[in-house]
Design a protein that fits this description.
By secondary structure, the protein is of the alpha+beta class. The protein has helices at 2-29, 215-219, 224-230, and strands at 80-107, 111-112, 115-116, 127-158, 164-174, 177-187, 197-199, 204-214. The protein has 3 helices and 8 strands, in the order H-E-E-E-E-E-E-E-E-H-H. The chain starts with a helix and ends in a 6-residue tail after the last helix.
Amino acid sequence: MKAKTTYIALTRLSIVFILAMVIIALTGCVKSSDIKKKNKFEPPKIEQREPVILHNGSIYQAGMRVNLFADTQARQIGDILTITLVESATALASSDTAAEKKQNVEMPPPKIAGDKVTNKDKEVLENEIEAGRDFRGSGESNQAHNFQAVITVSVIDVLPNQHLVVRGEKLIMLNQSDDYIRFSGIVRPQDIDQDNTVESQKVGNVRISYSGRGVLSSANKMGPLARFFQSGVYPY
């Protein structure tokens, strides 16, 4: 009987071990996307159009861009714009709750035949009920981040209200680490400075991603086995 119990325990342990190995293998098969491959953050393709030559005797034709007195601010699809990333946020939340309730009920002993019921000079039917409850809970959450960088993006679309949809990335490959910054958002032309720069705080619908791959990034990530024991799949 003891040998049978030991065999069942070993069988269950083997099944758990096999399931864990399968999950680890499936996790290892899921590879992160290569940041060096082509992606949607590439510069937009500019359609090449042949200028229409009109023989009307005019020096300046319709659609001709005269940059003699024009500024260098981004205005059309394909133009570039420098974004100054200055993002800072701090959040603080705390809560404290306390509740307390007490109750005391005294019931005088009844009399039977005009006298108290006693046993060895002690009242038998004397009762007293006392109850209480106490609750106290508290919580605190602090979060802060500060991010500063500079990235130059491309105008990929011009909205009907002349707002610019921008998008771009910066890929940095140093030693054994590949880091990238990706940015997208909507810029108002009046927020662009004379040097063709704009702060990220003035950009709408901002999407900023900062990540990478390599030895340093892998060292800061939890391994597949550790993720399994920290996930909801682990039953204990």
